[in-house]
Design brief:
Length: about 70
């Protein structure tokens, strides 16, 4: 009876050890795959702000006139 309990305990301990090793190996692999998948996203250009030309503004660089 005692031998059966010891063998069952060792079986469970070795099983937990194997599961821990597999988890320790798979977590970095899964993280690398997820990081590589995130790197393939396209870059979004920054927002460019445009303002209309105000001819009444004396600090305006470009003169603007209608007609001749």
């Amino acid at each position: 009876m005692k031998k059966d309990a010891i063998s069952a305990g060792l079986f469970i301990a070795i099983g937990f050890l194997c599961v821990a090793i597999v988890i320790a190996v798979l977590i970095p692999v899964v993280r690398d795959v997820i990081d590589d998948a995130d790197d393939n996203r396209p870059t979004v250009p920054a927002v460019s702000m445009t303002q209309p030309l105000n001819s009444a503004d004396p600090t305006s660089d470009a003169p603007f006139s209608l007609g001749a």
